[in-house]
Amino acid sequence: MIYGVGTDLCDIRRIAAVLARRGDRFAERVLGPNELQVFHHRRARVEARGIAYLATRFSAKEAFSKAIGLGLHHPMTWRDCETLNAPGGQPQIRLHGDLAAWFTARGLSAHVSITDETDYATSFVVVETRA
């Protein structure tokens, strides 16, 4: 049964501007530890790929927070919600800390889809109860 649905559209140019103003502090505030490693790796290879990665993860966190109905209020935090790729490339939500405990206690599971183009990143999250 569907618990919630969330979607988000993010302007990648806006993320690039924030990075230019604040440097890596913005990425460190938004990304979880595993996402941060991927961000640095991709950005070192191609700047635009790193910025697009940050934008897609920002978008996925926004969509997830909408799907669970909490917005960005405890236990939902930026760093406790990560979107990482499975070996085949499928994005998956990985939760940590209080958010993981809250999510598990409710018997929830999440599905995420993310995509980006030159200027925009978008994500769609469906959260369902495990029956």
Automatic annotation (TrEMBL):
Keyword Ligase set for record: no
Record's catalysed reaction(s): apo-[ACP] + CoA = holo-[ACP] + adenosine 3',5'-bisphosphate + H(+)
GO MF annotation terms: holo-[acyl-carrier-protein] synthase activity; magnesium ion binding
Subcellular location: Cytoplasm
GO CC field: cytoplasm
Residues involved in Mg(2+) binding: D8, E62
Enzyme class: transferase
Record-given protein name: Holo-[acyl-carrier-protein] synthase
Biological source species: Sphaerotilus hippei
